[in-house]
Amino acid sequence: MFAREGARVFLAGRTQAKLDAVARDVAAAGGRADVAQVDVFDQRAVDEHAEGVAASVGSIDIALNAVSVMHDQGTPLADLSLEEFMRPIQGFLQTLFVTSKAVARHMGGNRPGVVLTLSEPGARLALPGILGDGVSAAGKEAFSRLLAAELAPRGIRVVDIRPHAVVDAPAAGSYTGELFAKSAAASGRSVAEFLGDGGLAQGTLLNRLPTLSEIAETAAFLASDRAGAMTATIANLSGGALVD
């Protein structure tokens, strides 16, 4: 989507095969993508990668943090270990800090910059079994809001995107199926049924979950000058599961 909007795309992630697959999609859309295998928990490696990108093109205009870590959903407090509780909190917030710090120093020069982050409805839901997920989601949204206040004097915007579970994510190769396996099994349904019309989708006003394409379209809009007055806010893509 960014390539179609004319952006020069730099992809960084853990798995070379997945990076290469997305780069091929970008090329097929008429764009160009450079790929780099980077461990987001290695702060020095992330800093060096960001410096290399900025050196090659002059600055970084847009950064999208789509990092995720496998975590528990469906286990109540009595059975939840401290390690499982802390896994998403430590993982998600550490990656936000590392990536945001790495790119922010290369933003806000001749052009405004945009940092996009992702959270989940768990930040606002009162449901059992999502303690770590919900706390981490709330932390990501707070991080984005506070970072926006810090970076605004330099013309850098920060916007959080809050989708629901993504209906076509398992087919795209994410770990969504594994993530919801425990909750689906407890309800006696498959993951597809748990996410579908009789499951999470039913809890939205639109009776459906967002798609990857819708999230990408929203990200491209938020990164553009058309959303130039938006910062320190959340784009709610929950299908009406949450009403702001």
- Strand arrangement, major sheet: 3-4-5-6
Q: State the order of secondary-structure elements, H for helix, E for strand.
A: EHEHEHEHEHHHHE
Query: What share of the residues lie within helices?
Result: 40-55%
Distance between the termini: 27 Å
- The strand count comes to 6
Q: Please, what is the average pLDDT?
A: 93
**Main β-sheet: number of strands, strand sense, barrel status?**
4 strands, parallel
List the total number of helices: 8
The helix/strand class is: alpha/beta
**Shape summary:** globular
Radius of gyration of CA atoms, rounded to a whole number = 18 Å
Protein name: Enoyl-ACP reductase-like protein
Family: Belongs to the short-chain dehydrogenases/reductases (SDR) family.
InterPro entries: NAD(P)-bd_dom_sf, SDR_fam
GO molecular function: oxidoreductase activity
Notes on the structure:
- It is built from eight helices and six strands.
- By secondary structure, it is an alpha/beta fold.
- Helix 2 runs parallel beside helix 3 (82-104) and helix 3 packs parallel to helix 4.
- The model has no long low-confidence stretch (mean pLDDT 93).
- A four-stranded parallel β-sheet has the order 3-4-5-6, sandwiched between helices. Strands 1-2 form a two-stranded parallel sheet.
- Helices cover 41% and strands 13% of the residues.
- It starts with 8 loop residues before the first strand and ends in a 7-residue tail after the last strand.
- The longest helix has 23 residues, at 82-104.
- Helix 4 links the parallel strand 4 and strand 5.
- The protein has helices at 16-28, 43-57, 82-104, 131-151, 176-179, 181-186, 191-195, 212-223, and strands at residues 9-13, 33-37, 62-64, 113-118, 156-163, 233-237.
